[in-house]
């Protein structure tokens, strides 16, 4: 089974222009993502997909980069453009704003999809005990069925509890934006339309609305994402903690 990891990285961002090149502890963020993903045991190859020459040139100094069209609307569309002509079985869409991604998380999502022939794609979720906690203000939530397939994703906290008698028995799962696709499905996926995707601004809803299954794996890992410039200091603090433990 040949598995490729693709890290989509664009320069333009309304909240954080040039985010992939933001320096964290002496290295651009995209380099942190690449180097943290590289030790994955399931990846046969790893590449950054970008539409910007500046990002391309930086990535070429430490890894592989591919230029894609600036007209592509989502990260998954950019990933699909990279793998369309490649001989691969599973494609992993690795978020470019998670500089502390765990390689084990990549292996978990790949194995989750590889084990389930009924699923077209797979992703990871994290069980949350307190969805109202400040660290979950920007979380995306997912509801699962008894077999671990995603029923729905939302930026609203779901499920909405109407009966306090069952509140403690209802699990909450925060979505981790790491996806594994079967290549043939990914190429179809880019041609699908979805009203729900545009309503929630969540591209994974494209698969569900078109009747495809998304298998999930519950994992203890929860990423530290960089959405705004002020998030950089939290990542640097975490890196400092890691370094202190290894010294």
Task: Provide keyphrases for this structure.
247 residues; alpha/beta; Spore Coat Polysaccharide Biosynthesis Protein SpsA, Chain A; nine-stranded mixed beta sheet; two-stranded antiparallel sheet; 8 helices; 29% helix; globular
Number of strands: 11
Encode the helix/strand succession as letters. Answer: EEEHEHEHEHEEEEHHHEH
The largest sheet, given as strand count, sense and whether it forms a barrel, is: 9 strands, mixed
User: CATH homologous superfamily of the domain at 3-123 and 175-194 and 202-213 and 220-236, by name?
Assistant: Spore Coat Polysaccharide Biosynthesis Protein SpsA, Chain A
Mean pLDDT metric: 92
List unreliable stretches of 5+ residues. Answer: none
CATH 2nd-level architecture of the domain at 3-123 and 175-194 and 202-213 and 220-236 = Alpha-Beta Complex
The Cα radius of gyration reads 18 Å
Question: Which structural class best describes the helix and strand composition?
Answer: alpha/beta
Discrete helix count: 8
Under CATH, the topology of the domain at 3-123 and 175-194 and 202-213 and 220-236 can be stated as Spore Coat Polysaccharide Biosynthesis Protein SpsA, Chain A
Query: CATH class of the domain at 3-123 and 175-194 and 202-213 and 220-236, please?
Result: Alpha Beta
Strand content: 15-25%
Our measurement of the CA-to-CA distance between the termini, rounded to an integer number of angstroms, reads 38 Å
Shape: globular
């Amino acid at each position: 089974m040949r598995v490729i990891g693709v890290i989509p990285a664009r320069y333009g961002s309304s909240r954080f222009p040039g985010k992939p090149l933001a320096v964290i502890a002496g290295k651009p963020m995209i380099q942190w993502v690449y180097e943290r993903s590289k030790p994955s045991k399931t990846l046969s190859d790893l590449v950054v997909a970008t539409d910007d020459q500046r990002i391309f040139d930086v990535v070429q100094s430490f890894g592989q980069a591919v230029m894609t069209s600036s007209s592509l609307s989502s990260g998954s569309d950019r990933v699909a453009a990279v793998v369309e002509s490649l001989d691969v079985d599973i494609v992993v869409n690795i978020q470019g704003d998670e500089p502390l991604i765990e390689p084990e998380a990549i292996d978990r999502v790949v194995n989750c999809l590889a084990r389930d022939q009924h699923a077209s794609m797979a992703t990871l979720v994290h069980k949350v005990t307190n969805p109202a906690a400040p660290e979950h203000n920007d979380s995306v939530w997912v509801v699962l069925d008894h077999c671990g397939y995603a029923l729905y994703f939302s930026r609203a906290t779901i499920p909405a509890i109407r009966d306090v008698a069952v509140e403690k028995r209802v699990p909450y799962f925060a979505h981790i934006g790491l996806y594994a696709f079967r290549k043939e499905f990914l190429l179809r996926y880019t041609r699908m339309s979805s009203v729900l995707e545009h309503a929630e601004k969540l591209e994974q809803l494209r698969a569900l609305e078109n009747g495809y299954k998304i298998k999930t794996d519950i994992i203890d890992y929860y990423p530290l994402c960089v959405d705004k410039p002020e998030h950089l200091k939290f990542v640097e603090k975490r890196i400092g903690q890691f370094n202190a433990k290894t010294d």
